[in-house]
TrEMBL record:
Domain TRAM: 67-107
Record-stated family: Belongs to the class I-like SAM-binding methyltransferase superfamily. RNA M5U methyltransferase family.
Species: Recurvomyces mirabilis
Gene, per the UniProt record: TRM2
Presence of keyword RNA-binding: no
Annotated keywords: Methyltransferase, S-adenosyl-L-methionine, Transferase
Protein name (record): tRNA(M5U54)methyltransferase
EC number(s) from the headed UniProt entry: 2.1.1.35
Disordered as annotated region, ranges: 1-31
Length: 575
């Protein structure tokens, strides 16, 4: 059993956790930061429950590294790992459930933050929540999916709690400013949903100078091809991944075989791309449909797509074009570039946004008439290849999208054309999101008639963007995010406001103009600890700050170019 050693005995036995708090004191939404918030709250609860003092906790003894320890799991953290508390220390144990008693191996104590990372070894007494038999043989080793032992309803309830905690821990808002978080919307497919997987393999051991000198790599055999082993930097050999779509799983088998046969051609490790692509074939005209199987040497999966048959294949060339359909809309992209990875849930997300961003205007009490104009314009910030612009196009008379990647803007422009969106009402800007507001013509996009959809990368928006958004003051904001922690931080800024900065910045405009109307998670990634957050914000009106029809974000310029796309260099000068 575990040997004991005194806490913090002088020498640091375990590697210090380098990535700690953000230098700005503001959440960066990192795993460490999110875990730490859960650890602190759990320790606080324990302290309140047993009245222990800081000094008493400092007396605690910790087991030696690599020893085994039995633990009672009480909750799952927002990072997806189980948490147990023993003698004032929190133990983080992956692949567990609240109510489990498990044996774990001590990997690393994070002394300054009172938690310990462990490896899961075995269940001694199972939790009543542990009802599912994980279909994946790599469960409890692969870092990909932690929740296969939990029923889906439990996963959804847990993800609701993640959203709730994110707003408690990172928004800085009082509880009264955050609405009750709605139930998480589940994914229609809970396995077989991922349209993209990127397994990888490591290169052979080789001196750096030999590699630089171009010495040919010697492979001792075919290396493991797969995903990271949980808690390590080692790649596990993974033959199959049941969260991938059928076409992607077939592609995985084919690519593994190819790499095995051609390993000598590789000079170093590589990441493999597996991206599903769909061809729609009409059912009429004598075409019966496409059966799954080999067609001209290629693996094809035939699926019923309503009026159509969907021929699904797996693309491995990152520059080749992959096609996806969401409702009646078609999206073409370079296979290696960003597109949402769970096609099955996308129609639910776009329908939800449609239903929620156009909620009826509030009636004017004195006259009984509608006091706010109808929203008819959309700005799609961080638009990628135009998914939201295109999928929501029928709801708006004018849309404009912005993305920092010129390649994404080329795809967005192409996707608008593919879906017959007129170029005078749908435009895209290739630039940093911060350039957006200088390019907006408030005559074409009056704030009171405009919704801004925001879907940034995991790190969220920066304050510069939020500042400009507050100055512009659209009637509604719909914030979609793959990191609910940075989303909570940014929504906190929009609701509570920011300090006015420098001379000339309108203090009123920096006041919180917004209230959160609705908030919930969408389960884009079943079986994993991730949740996509969708927050809908409403401008409060005159009492919340300025309500101006003119942007103060910079020079106002017309945005009505003859084509869909405005080049980055022209972002502020569109005319
Ligand atoms: C999560 S993706 C969303 C894409 C798109 N909304 C979709 O659903 O396909 C985030 C996008 O933000 C873009 N991006 C990252 N930093 C940016 C910035 N500073 N300004 C504008 N776009 C940015 C990326 O190129 C990427 O396309």
């Amino acid at each position: 059993m575990a040997q004991k050693r005194p806490f913090n005995e002088g020498k640091r036995h375990f590697k210090k956790n380098k990535k700690q708090k953000s230098s700005t004191g503001v959440s960066e939404g990192s795993n460490e930061e999110v875990l730490l918030a859960d650890v602190r709250r759990l320790l606080q609860d324990v302290k309140i429950a047993n009245g222990s003092t800081k000094e008493e906790q400092a007396e605690k003894e910790l087991p030696e590294q690599w020893t085994e320890i039995d633990l009672d799991i009480t909750e799952i953290s927002s990072t997806g790992d189980g948490l147990a508390q023993k003698n004032g220390q929190v133990y983080v144990v992956p692949f567990t459930a609240p109510g489990d008693t498990v044996t774990a191996k001590v990997v690393r104590h994070v002394l300054e933050d009172s938690y310990t990372l462990t490896d899961f070894l075995a269940v001694k007494t199972p939790s009543k929540h542990r009802t599912e038999i994980p279909p994946c043989p790599y469960f409890s080793q692969c870092s990909g999916c932690q929740f296969q032992h939990l029923p889906y309803s439990y996963q959804l309830a847990h993800k609701r709690e993640i959203v709730e905690k994110a707003y408690t821990n990172f928004s800085g808002l009082p509880a009264a400013a955050v609405p009750v978080v709605g139930d998480t919307i589940g994914s229609p497919l809970q396995y077989g949903y991922r349209t993209k997987l990127t397994p990888h393999f490591d290169g052979p051991p080789m001196a750096r100078k030999d590699r630089r000198a171009g010495v040919k790599a010697i492979w001792p055999g075919v290396p493991p091809i797969g995903f990271m082993k949980k808690g390590t930097r080692k790649t596990m050999d993974i033959e199959d991944c049941p969260i991938g779509t059928e076409a992607v799983r077939l592609g995985m088998k084919r690519e593994r075989r190819r790499v095995g046969e051609e390993i000598e051609k590789f000079q170093r490790g590589a990441t493999l791309l597996l991206r599903e692509s769909t061809e729609r074939v009409a059912k009429e005209g004598g075409v019966e449909g496409v059966k799954s199987g080999k067609v001209e040497g290629e693996d094809v999966v035939g699926e019923d797509g309503g009026e159509f048959v969907h021929k699904k294949t797996c693309i491995t060339d990152s520059k080749a074009t992959s096609t996806e359909y969401v409702d009646e809309f078609r999206f073409d992209n370079p296979a290696g570039s960003f597109f949402q990875n769970n096609n099955s849930i996308l129609p639910l997300v776009t329908q939800y946004i449609r239903d929620n961003i156009l909620a009826p205007p509030t009636p004017d009490d004195s006259t009984g008439t509608q006091s706010q104009p109808k929203i008819t314009k959309m700005i799609d910030a961080y638009c990628g290849s135009g998914f939201f612009t295109v999928a929501l196009s029928q709801t708006f008379t004018n849309s404009i999208g912005i993305d920092i990647s010129p390649q994404s803007i080329t795809s967005a422009t192409h996707n608008a054309e593919l879906n017959n969106l007129p170029s005078d009402s749908t435009t895209f800007i290739s630039s940093d999101a911060n350039a957006l507001f200088a390019a907006i013509d408030t005559a074409n996009f009056p704030p009171a008639e405009t919704v801004v959809v925001i879907d940034p990368p995991r790190k969220g928006c920066d304050q510069g963007f939020i500042r400009q958004l507050l100055k512009y003051g659209p009637a509604r904001i719909c914030y979609v995010s793959c990191n609910v922690h940075t989303q909570a931080r940014d929504v906190g800024w929009l609701v509570a406001g920011l300090e006015a900065e420098g001379e000339g910045e309108d203090e009123r405009a920096m006041k919180g103009l917004y209230e959160i109307e609705s908030l919930r998670g969408f389960d884009f990634f079943p079986q994993t600890g991730h949740v996509e957050g969708v927050a809908v914000l409403r401008r409060k009106g005159a009492e919340g700050g300025v309500v101006e029809e003119k942007s103060t974000a910079g020079e106002v310029q017309a945005v009505a170019p003859p084509t869909h796309c405005i080049e980055a260099t022209d972002a502020g000068k569109a005319s």
